[in-house]
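Worked problem 6 (solution included).
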Amino acid sequence: MKRWKIAFCLPAVVFVIATSYNMVRYRYNFINATIRSILMESTQWAEGFSDWSFAKIRIGMTEKEVFSFIGEPLNRGTNKHAAVWTYFLAEPDKHNCNGKKIYFDQKWIVNKIESGFKTIHIGMHKNEVVTRIGEAKCYTQFDDSYEYTWSYSNRGEINGNYDRRWVSFDRSGKAINIVHTYYVD
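Solution. The predicted structure is:
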């Protein structure tokens, strides 16, 4: 009977420790920390990147300030989307828009889709998306000031699960959006 208790309790203790580690180390909420503990992740990080330094980034910082904290990004991209709608398998956390995303251009035409949408395709209008799968519970709409993004993490080679770390800047070079989440593909 004692061996059965140890065999049952040991994995539970390891799971609690792993989830707690992910909550502290990556500053994730309980749901993201749990998912990261269960699934194998495969994040490719920018050279010299640290989550502790990333946590110091604040809205309104300049490019130079961001660069001084976290250095050179893996990718620098320009914004080609006017809005992003996020769909969830479960209820979203109010502080986290981590889910499957559909991207729209200025005319509300789909111009990018993350995997998992079988009935949605590039070129569809927003109204057709709403008719097929409903409106998203979480969305981000960008104004003309949303200009470019620096990415400090990328999908690795093992699978599509990875830690996302992005900073978006407006045309004046001020940080306007900070993404710190775990993405599951």
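Discussion: The first strand starts at residue 43 and ends at 45.
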